[in-house]
Write a structure and sequence with these properties.
The chain has 206 residues and is mainly alpha-helical. 62% of the residues lie in helices and 0% in strands.
Length: 206
């Protein structure tokens, strides 16, 4: 505390971290409300009450800002369900499909739209695409490390998780566009098929 002022000085590193979090929070809000392409860095700076120049002290570009937001997001945790080995993998995976179909994130059209804009931006930027791929691979490998089930001997342990992620992305898009076709049952049966990639006890069905 500075003598005679009663003002507590915030350490520089902490102040910088707070500004970074505020920029990410405001960027996420504006991307959802206005769209990624329509949101300028000036708008993000104004919402976060900093100068545009201050943004470049934290992020190299708007794509960097969006990627940082993606990287900061937690990985959904379904470990309690998926690692309940008292139930066969097929049953657990079918329930995962049902849960994902009903999850509020799946029904979040604004969040999905931002995600699709991110993919479009990544396709135009090879460096950013590689960075996104590295983060995705890291997350998938972390999930593999918590997996209580063993895949078949000729299956890369990352493969079932990669397929599951791809299923979710595709189903999430299509269920918002055509909910009559891409129902909860479609999610359930799609994930149930992943059980075929895992080994089961001798004589047991996967």
């Amino acid at each position: 505390m500075r003598k005679g002022t009663g003002v507590t000085r915030v350490p520089r590193a902490e102040a910088k971290a707070r500004t970074r979090r505020r920029l990410i929070e405001q960027a996420e809000r504006l991307f959802r409300e206005q769209g990624y392409a329509a949101t300028s860095l000036e708008a993000v700076a104004e919402a976060a009450e900093v100068t545009k120049g201050a943004i470049y002290g934290h992020f190299a570009s708007k794509e960097d800002l969006l990627l940082c937001a993606v990287e900061a997001a937690p990985t959904p945790d379904h470990g309690e369900l998926l690692n309940d080995t008292s139930r066969p993998p097929r049953e657990r995976l079918a329930e995962l499909g049902r849960r994902l179909a009903l999850d509020e994130v799946t029904a979040d059209d604004a969040g999905l739209a931002v995600g699709l804009e991110l993919f479009a931006a990544l396709l135009r930027n090879p460096e950013a695409r590689l960075r996104y791929a590295a983060d995705l691979r890291r997350r998938l490998e972390e999930l593999v490390s918590t997996d209580a089930d063993e895949p078949l001997p000729d299956i890369d342990p990352v493969e079932p998780w990669a397929i599951g992620h791809a299923l979710y992305l595709g189903l999430r898009i299509l269920c918002r566009l055509d909910p009559e076709t891409f129902t909860e049952g479609v999610f359930e049966h799609a994930y149930e098929l992943l059980a075929g990639l895992y080994s089961g006890p001798p004589g047991a069905s996967p």
